[in-house]
Design brief:
Length: about 220
């Protein structure tokens, strides 16, 4: 048995009302809620929020709300794993006992049910504490530069004269979902545990932190469709 939890706090600064901003005709969080429901793997799809407005919108699109999240866990610096711990504890107090919990990003309009299904199957094999969505970094940051005293310098000097094909392929958090066992969420962290992965193709990946990201996501969405 598994529960999806979609954190969606209010008060975003770089994009006002980011989690409910309209994206292709509906609040961006609706895409995450609807795809989670379409996957048919979740016993519950919950939205964790401190906002009555976000809660109402989430319910409209089929999610459940188990009370509002406190403000001390709704700030811009609150780690998502702390939100997960809070919601899992709350579920256990209500006598809901689930073995797996899936964090789904509220701003992931290109999430697909097939990836969620794959992630669930992978976490069930018990080899992993977590299964994270990842995506390739197309520009190899091992050849990164920085500026010092008006001059450019190689950040990794040993890679200065290496060919790109000789450097390791790097990946980043795919900004879509992370499956985890209940005990793993309570005690561990995805990036320092036994974490498996589902690779999201670059044409479906766009982390949304600012308005430029939002515009780029809309362009990728249009091209994909």
């Amino acid at each position: 048995m598994i529960v999806a939890i979609i954190p969606a706090r209010s008060g975003s600064k770089r994009i006002i009302n980011k989690n409910i901003k309209l994206f292709k005709g509906k609040p961006i969080i609706a895409w995450s809620i609807e795809e989670a429901l379409k996957s048919k793997i979740f016993s519950k799809v919950l939205v964790s929020t401190d906002s009555i407005k976000i809660a109402r919108i989430a319910k409209k699109y089929g999610a459940e709300i188990l009370g509002l999240r406190p403000k001390n866990l709704s700030g811009p610096k609150t780690p998502l794993n702390e939100v997960m711990k809070y919601e899992i504890k709350k579920m256990k107090k209500k006598k809901f006992n689930y073995k797996y919990y899936c964090l789904i990003y509220a701003t992931a309009p290109m999430i697909e049910k097939g990836d969620l299904i794959q992630g669930y199957k992978k976490i069930q094999k018990n080899k992993f504490d977590f299964v994270l969505s990842i995506s390739k970094i197309n520009t190899n940051i091992l050849r990164s530069l920085y500026i010092k005293d008006s001059y450019i310098k190689p950040f990794f000097k040993k890679n200065t004269f290496k060919n790109t094909q000789d450097l390791k392929q790097l990946y980043c958090d795919g900004a879509q979902f992370c499956f985890g066992k209940d005990i793993s969420w309570m005690k561990k962290h995805p990036f320092i545990s036994k974490t498996g992965f589902i690779t999201i193709p670059s044409y479906r990946f766009q982390d949304i932190d600012n308005i430029e990201d939002f515009i780029m996501a809309a362009k990728l969405f249009k091209k994909r469709n």
